[in-house]
Amino acid sequence: MKSVHVVQHMHILPSGEESVLFIGVYSSYDAAETAIKRLSMQPGFCKYPEIIDPDITDQEQGFYIDLYELDKDHWSSGYVTMVGDSEYKA
Fold first, then answer.
1. Which of 1, 46, 47, 87 has an alpha carbon 20 to 30 Å from 12's alpha carbon atom?
2. Kind and range of the H or E run holding 5
3. For residues 66 and 37, is the Cβ–Cβ distance under 8 A?
4. Digit-coded pLDDT (tens) for 52-74
5. First to last CA, the chain
6. How far apart are CA 29 and CA 2, in angstroms?
């Protein structure tokens, strides 16, 4: 099984919305950690430099490393767009 490690950074805007930044795709967990070390001192990232593990913390803001298997659909159930409490129909 071939897989990659995807790094993203999430912080919450004053409006309460989540801002998720796609950082990159890495061949190993160590390479992903090294990228985070390079970025964690940069403006914005330095406010939330931690690697977040949702299984052990309630902290939401920081870096996430997710493992993705290649050649596999990771979203396969379709979607709807909501505006308020109603489905948006274009």
1. 87
2. strand 3-12
3. no
4. 998 899 999 999 999 999 999 98
5. 40
6. 13
